[in-house]
Structures are given as C-alpha cells and as structure tokens.
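Exercise 3.2. Students should predict the tertiary structure of the chain below and write it as structure tokens, then compare their answer with the key that follows.

Predict this chain's 3D structure.
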Amino acid sequence: MSFRALLHRALEVDFMDVALSYVALFYLGWIASAGPT
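Answer key:
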C-alpha cells in the first residue's frame, strides 16, 4: 500500500470514531432531555 492509501485509511478510521462519538453524545443528550417514554 502507498503512503497516500494508508493516510486515507487512517483519516477514514479517525473520522468514523469522531462521528460515532458525536452520534453517541447526541443520542445520550436526547435521552436525557426527553426522558423515558
């Protein structure tokens, strides 16, 4: 694999981690504000 491909893969993984963390925080915040239904 080329350096460019490795860099792209690393950035892709980092972006997924950040996106999942953001979604998890948003979901927890929504649950906290909405409360149990």
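Discussion points: The chain has a mean pLDDT of 86. Helices lie at 3-34.
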